[in-house]
Amino acid sequence: MVTERTVAAFRAARAAGVRVVLVTGRPVRWLKPVADALGGIGPVICSNGAVVYDLVEDRLLRQDPIDQDIVFAVQEQIRRIDPDASFAAETLQKVHAEPPFLVDSLFFEEDRRRAAGVTDDMLSLGPLEETLRVGSGVVKLLAKTTVMDADAFLEAVRAKVGALVTVTHSAPGVSLLELSAKGVDKAAALRRFAAAEGITRDQVIAFGDMPNDIEMLQWAGTSWAVGSAHPMARSAAQHLTADCDEDGVAQVLEDLLDGGDGVLCGTS
């Protein structure tokens, strides 16, 4: 939930001429309420950099999907690490998910799905090799295990398939990995976006809290991790602010509004 203080800080930044860009692992369909709350933000970088979408114009600007043959090859390799691993695949249209993957998620029970605004056309259940069609455009493959923690799972999967895909995670307390096409991450997408806008690296201020933010925090001219951030994200950032529940990002924005032009990158 975005607090009133954070909304006010982002709106003040935009009013001051600062370019605000959301950079997130979430799919585009979840972002319009957040962007609207922050003041009608247009282009967003989502699915860990695999999708750039203009929410104001309701228009896809770019997508970098994983080759479907690689999706299935990666699945096979991860099952060698954990035969009971479960999978889902994000496309621009929907989530394709194996039923075991949904256990303990908001997608698991129909009433929870509907309460969260998840309609039937957003979800396709079954083995990925059955539900995915040629050209489905998988922008993010998700893999879940119950036999090791997220960081250990990350290390094991990177060792197996790191030459084929980009592997990261961002879900606190869940051993859930997010896999994108090789070379696709938040930093790569933000770098392209900034270059197109004529914004230099040293003008970019980035905020993050999880391993999927690491490359972006390392690339940005100025980077901040929130106090509750994963240790990897804290190590990647130049500065540390307060926890999210203490409006750490808003505190930084309020202090920086007297500075020069730049891009501010929010994560969720």
Give a written overview of the molecule.
By secondary structure, the chain is α/β, with parallel strands linked by helices. The chain has two domains: 141 residues, Rossmann fold; 114 residues, Hypothetical Protein, Haloacid Dehalogenase-like Hydrolase, Chain: A, domain 2. Helices cover 32% and strands 22% of the residues. It has ten helices and 14 strands. An eight-stranded mixed β-sheet has the order 4-3-2-1-14-11-12-13. Strands 7-6-5-8-10-9 form a six-stranded mixed β-sheet, covered by helices on one side. Strand 9 and strand 10 form a beta hairpin. The chain is globular.
Keyword list:
single chain, 268 residues, alpha/beta, Rossmann fold, Hypothetical Protein, Haloacid Dehalogenase-like Hydrolase, Chain: A, domain 2, 8-stranded mixed beta sheet, 6-stranded mixed beta sheet, 22% strand
Write down the Rg: 18 Å
Say how many strands there are. Answer: 14
Helicity range: 25-40%
Detail the poorly predicted runs. Answer: none
List the helices and strands and how they pair.
Elements: H1 4-15, E1 19-23, H2 32-37, E2 43-46, E3 51-54, E4 59-63, H3 68-81, E5 86-90, E6 95-97, H4 110-115, E7 123-125, H5 128-131, E8 140-144, H6 150-161, E9 165-168, E10 176-181, H7 186-196, E11 204-208, H8 214-219, E12 222-225, H9 231-236, E13 239-240, H10 248-256, E14 263-266
Parallel strand pairs: 1-2, 1-14, 6-7, 11-12, 11-14, 12-13
Antiparallel strand pairs: 2-3, 3-4, 5-6, 5-8, 8-10, 9-10
